[in-house]
Amino acid sequence: MQNQWLVSGRLSGLKPPSVDADDPSLPPPADLTKPIFSPPPPLMLGPTIPLPPSLVERIRRSEDKTLKRLAPVSIAPSGRPCVLIPDSVF
């Protein structure tokens, strides 16, 4: 059986177009032996100035993170802790 470019329909007898390597309008062929990646950009050497902290970071540093007990804890006869909620909460 013959090699055919397209098998279906009336284009089954066509062959792929040939390329003339000596044609000056064509770009030169790619060199496949060289790697395709580009070198990394040069690193910036020198002193780097740290950015000032954002508003969120400043608030986090200044907020009070201590926990304070507002109501005394007592133990129920069943052994469960009970907390008396003062009326000032309501």
UniProtKB/TrEMBL annotation:
User: Segment Disordered: which positions?
Assistant: 1-50
* Pro residues bias locations: 37-50
Name of the protein described by the UniProt record: Uncharacterized protein
